[in-house]
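Build the 3D complex.
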Amino acid sequence: MNSAPWEIVIGLEIHTQLATHSKIFSGAATAYGAQPNTQACAVDLGMPGVLPVLNQDAVNKAITFGLAIEAEIAPYSVFARKNYFYPDLPKGYQISQLEHPIVGKGYLDIDLDGESKRIGITRAHLEEDAGKSLHENFHGLSGIDLNRAGTPLLEIVSEPDLRSAKEAVAYMRKLHELVRYLEICDGNMQEGSFRCDANVSVRPAGQTTLGTRTEIKNINSFKFVEKAINYEVERQIEIIENGGRIIQETRLYDANKDETRSMRSKEEANDYRYFPDPDLLPVTIDEQLKAQLKAALPELPAAKKQRFQAQYQLDHDAAHALTSSRAMADYFEEVVKHTTLDAKLCANWLTGDLTAALNKADLDIQDSPVSAARIAELLQRISDQTISGKIAKQVFDTLWQHPNSTADTIIAEQGLKQITDSGAIEAIIDKIIADNPDQVEQYRSGKDKVFAFFVGQVMKAMQGKANPAEVNKMLIAKLTP
Amino acid sequence: MHTKTIKQLAEGLRAGTFSSVELTQHFLTRIEKFHALNAFITVTQEHALTAAKQADKRLAEGNAPLLTGIPFAHKDIFCTHGIKTSCGSKMLDNFIAPYNATVVDKLHHAGAVMLGKLNMDEFAMGSSNENSFYGAAHNPWHENVVPGGSSGGSAAAVAAGLAVCATGTDTGGSIRQPAAFCGITGLKPSYGRVSRYGMIAYASSLDQGGPMARSAEDAAILLQAMAGFDEKDSTSINEPVPDYSRHLTESLQGLKIGLPKEFFQHGLNSQIAQDIDNALNEYRKLGATIIELSMPTLTMAIPAYYVLASAECSSNLSRYDGVRFGHRCEHPADLTDLYLRSRAEGFGSEVKRRILMGTYALSAGYYDAYYLKAQKIRRLISDDFQHALTQVDVIMSPVTPSHAFTLGEKTADPVHMYLEDLYTIAINLAGLPAMSIPIGLSADTPEAPKLPVGLQLIGAYFSEAKLLNIAHAYQQVTNWHQLIPTGFE
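Done.
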């Protein structure tokens, strides 16, 4: 992509579904995947005469988010009606916030290629989700499922501070990590709990005014966000370089064709006729509630990462990987607490073997069959030299297959206990030296590499159970003339 | 039996003079007999007789609440589970509500026996009941005269003795104006006093349900059962409900009555002005003093009201789209056709007019000039009232500029119809409680029939008990509220 003379300007609007038990304005459940229209009460259906009642938990979660991005929490915020007709919008208006959002200006620091950049967050506001229109496999008709109608959303709007698709993805990932840390959103992108609209424009490098932007709607994965933005940037640059003009419009990303296409232009856009919702009082938030929620804030990812580096002497990458989710960080600390093994080696285990196994099984750390306590027991056997690191991998594989077993049981059953009896090791070494006079000669004439051959032979003869340090020590002693 | 007060009926029920089933049957017979009055949209005969039987059982067991076994009716704007709730519209002609309004539940628990659902202007928009899909109810005082609106069916039914009392709703005068036209007592409570849950919305920030009855004493009893905080209505107020009957007989000695001069200027019928003078004299005799007030913002109430009410209605009525309930056009070609024809067919012309006005007022480029400006006026009017009510205990005024008009007289000119609400609208903008009580009858001339006149009492927030006390005191020394229209004795 030739974008050298062009500066890319991106702002993201991210809809996070708040993990409340009930909807934002009714008592109906919010669980995903129920039979259509079984989780929609009279309020969600927009029946005549019904009224909304604000779910305080949704407010608390929005405040929690605001506190985490050091934003101003509005002492007074207002719900407004956004009016438009659509079959999956039961009332003919969406209850949202326009002029007085609950969360004001804040920021999020992102890391990209080892550098930190501060991205401004303009605002975050509460609103209700619409239902779903089902156009496929419905007897040739369109069906409406209102289970999702009234699900609480926090729409998080960034400043146009992002300068590349990569930055946009880094910001989105960071936000994704944060909302899950705060436990205000489950972050499930397949189920639509975390959705992104991207505002994209380009301008000649150095120009201060913004170019005309387009909005790409509903991009539901990190990969697609990057692809959609890159496609859109190229499209815009091509138009401008060919003497054309960008039209302000809403575009849709088609992942199958990897392209964006026009949905509606600014002229076709709805006049939403926003006005304050007379059915709801302004939301007032006092200092006491804010203080209470602030006290309940968990350690945030950035602080946790720093602490992990300092407290456990981890390098940046390991600390980053272990703090990528709150569950992984908790798992790590649980392991470290229960073993005397060096924390760095514990970290290697989690970011290496455990993560690989989880990825292979497509599981999150929360769903790991092997608990932190079981891993700690295993690592403890490395620490007390019952087994070698190599044998530990074998034990781990068995443990993964039989998560109800324990490292000690597996070590005992499979006879994996490490041999530290120097007499036994010495006998084997003597035999191998005697059987391989050529290699001995080579070693003694200065070919150090042959040493590995002897280690391998000893280990093979002892089925890997010899204490490697002991083997090394004895071999050197025996081989040195 | 249909001229007795709630207290008298409650005593009769407890003494065994008559049963609730007999009482209910008496009213059902009258409803049938006077069905040309068109006061009811739905008569729930079976439901009523079942409820009456239960009431008799409850009465026999003792400790039944005061309203137990008393036949009344709901304005058809309150959702009633399993019973058609039309809101006076073709749009909801097929709508069987799946739940009860809070007010409906409350009256049910109070033991009152619902006779049916009362006629009203479509979606409570109107001042004559002529905007009902079911045709206008008639004024019991004269068949060619409107009962007022939008709670016209409620006023006609109570005045004609087809129900002991009724619920109504008031967005710009819809309880008070029909009460005045039909010679009954109506009270619009403070905004937030009665739950709006299940009361089909017209203009949410102005709508308020209230009692319509034959006297202040009966209105107090009905309000007692209707009022109270409801967690399902975020705009309802969490304030204790006083005992409204307890303060009825307090003395009015030293009462300060304010008269806003803006409400007594041109346009007020001279006979009504005279009737009000007479009523004020009664109040003087009861120990009150009269103070003239000036409230210049009142003249801005009508335009501000029609901007705000229409804006809210344009949004509130968006849910009637033919998709989930209510009227749907035949064979829609596509989604747009479904919307356009369902709404074009389902709504009447006044509803459409207000949806259009409201949509316009909220549109980009007009919002500041209309909606925001109207909100500012609303604040000024509210401040004006607050200030006035620091100087006086109650404000009195006409309810309507003229007597009830004849059917069809004003339908051609919407603005003329809107001016009917001149004296009532500002009170909704301020959210204050207000009452209408009967204070006279027009002279009987060959050209015009004898028609009732109402007086409006306006009080401070949550002063319903005081207003009822002021109304009751007057009704103890006059008998206007006891008059019964000819033919309905």
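The mean pLDDT of chain A is 91.
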